[in-house]
Amino acid sequence: MxxxxxxxxxxxxxxxxxxxxxxxxxxxxxxxxLAGARAAWAAPRETVKAGWVHVTPVTDAGWTHQHDxxxxxxxxxxxxxxxxxxxxxxxxxxxxxxxxxxxxADGCDIVFTPSFGYxxxxxxxxxxxxxxxxxxxxxxxxxxxxxxANARYYEGRYLAGIAAARAAKSGVAGYVAGFPIPEVLQGxxxxxxxxxxxxxxxxxxxxxxxxxxxxxxxxxxxxTLMNQGAEVLAFHxxxxxxxxxxxxxxxxxVAYHSDMRRVAxxxxxxxxxxxxxxxxxxxxxxxxxxxxxxxxxxGGVREGMVRxxxxxxxxxxxxxxxxxxxxxxxxxxxVQPFHAGASGARDNQGRIVIAADKxxxxxxxxxxxxxxxxxxxxxxxx
Length: 382
Known about the structure:
single chain, alpha/beta, Rossmann fold, 2 domains, 16 strands, globular
């Protein structure tokens, strides 16, 4: 769902869509062959049919909810010129390929596939469907009719870590994570670095689920972490189970993807939300205008794709002011979550992973394969 190995420099607002970097050059051969065949029908259209494939059910909060909000924004902004449909709870793999093909056969001119495990199925269908366009969200491979997009979720994680450090008197937080891929590692590490920017002794206890959407196991992991002393919870999974568990136990948690105060009114410290309501209408409008191209989007706080807010009642006014100030600093570039001070930054094995007074490049962030100092956990082998 959420993985991303995509690359690209932090764009200015006028450069949110950028060419893919050289490590994707292996796609160039196929791109050239298909591009010529497509040129003839790249023209403005009167109407467009858009489809979405979702890896979980459409719920009232979370990853899939936010993408369904993007779909609704497409309908609201483009009106009668667009029709939409979606298929939910589609496993990654063969089922995804079948559903994507069905959407194309049903007449969808553009299909959004927001899950990393949909990347290869999307590419296979796209190769057989040159008259359709595809938006692989969290994927990193492009083709002439496959664009990619993701958000700099780690920026919100850093801010959430600052808030967690303020709230956790013991300095201990828990983190329930799906899979150990770079996008998730970015979030875990940024959260730990945010905590340690406030409390240098802060600890983040990490549990891997190897699943994106498994509410009973998400809940079980949350309970285990709280039993181990975690005062604040964070998670990189697709349900609200961690929030519900924190609410039941009187602890605090950071909502992910969307505001979850409805199920955790006292537990929610803040929410890191991911906004697709501008990006997805913009991509469908480009198709209507005959201007759609295969681009890569990687936006963050500055571009309005990542936002921290929706503060809960236990978030004090001074803490809130601090988070809002740091959010502005990230937007301006004054604060970078993966910039090290004079002593450099180490992983949780004691190795230097960020040189002194340096910041990681986008390529380094996108290839992240380590856990930051302060994270109590390991990377699964194999």
